[in-house]
Amino acid sequence: MRYRFHIIAFILSVLVVQNGISQGMIFETGNWASILKKAEKENKLIYLDAYTSWCGPCKLMKKNIFPDAKVGEYFNSNFVNAQIDMEKGEGPGLASKYSVNAYPTHLFINGKGELVHLGLGYMEGSAFIDLGKQANDPNQQYASLRKKYEAGSRDENLLRNYMNILYQMSDPMGEKVASEYFKTQSDLTTDDNIRWLNAFAISPSSPNHHVLLENKEVITRKLQTQFLSNLAYSYFVDNVKKGLKLEDAQKAISAVYPEKSGILSFYTAVYYSKKNKDTKAYEDVLFSYLTPENLDQFASVELNSYAWYVYESVEDADKVRQAIKWAQASVDKSSEYANNDTLAWLYYKAGDTATAKKIAQKAIDIGKAGGEDTSSTEELLTK
């Protein structure tokens, strides 16, 4: 009888352990002092979910990521997990101590209360696990990288890893580290280095900005309007701070890259009109610049976005017909479900139902092949 009892107890304990793993992350319920004590006793780092009740990405982490079995398996084995609202109880003090000003912030803290590593924002499960692995790797930990850097190490991999964390933190120190990193590079136009230039040199107020401008033609060839729109936006932000009017802001951006003054001025006008919530100005700049000779400058996804805006917001028949050309140019560059759907609805809005249905069927075929929800396009076929 006793033997049978032990077997039953063993089976129950196994089920409890399995259930603990499958339910995702397990969080401590004690106060901060008890969490620190447990981490020190078990020689583990604390993972602290620094959240607020109003934070949307925090809610998504709680709903989608923390319950994940693989996430739970890794974090429950390697960390003492805690969740604390940064606006309640012990939260404000911890937010101040660890300089938390964005949510969610993922903090990794040792049993002595020292910050070891961190990450920001919503992450998918695999990326979140990778963040945990970084926290347990001395070669990638924020604290160890900072310590080595401050001790004088300028190893290239160290600088890369340190820049990556500083970028996530929006830490101004990143620009200084990037400046030293750029000096070690013989080719600043590799894909990785272009990424660092966009991160730490695109702002006109950055001490590294001249390095980006020296390589702007190569970056443009590689990234095209992705780079040009980012460059225009960085000047837009800087010029708004200076109080510049649109025309002066367009002159400022054109002066640094005169060969691309047309499209840079276009993006600048778009950003100003959006900032001012001026729908008429926004439409004026779209219809004055998105002419046949300029369409080839834009990426397919951009043209589709502009065309869809017209479908949703513009009633003028001539403008709808002009937007059809944008949508067609988008399809010609890369025929996908989304832009064929846009093109179909624009033809429908222009009164050409037969062409609209023909293109809608094409969009549906592409969408279904890609596993997309095509129900909204299917509605057009019934009209």
List keywords for this structure.
383 residues; alpha+beta; Glutaredoxin; disordered N terminus
Can you walk through the features of this model?
With 383 residues, the protein is of the alpha+beta class. Among the domains are: 2-136, Glutaredoxin (3-Layer(aba) Sandwich), CATH 3.40.30.10; 290-383, Alpha Horseshoe (Serine Threonine Protein Phosphatase 5, Tetratricopeptide repeat), CATH 1.25.40. Helix content is 66%, strand content 7%. The protein has 21 helices and four strands. A four-stranded mixed beta sheet has the order 2-1-3-4, with helices on both faces. α13 (225-242) packs across α15, α17 packs parallel to α19 and α18 runs antiparallel to α19. The protein is globular and about 75 Å long. The chain starts with a helix and ends with a helix. 33% of the residues are buried. Mean pLDDT is 93; it is low at 1-21.
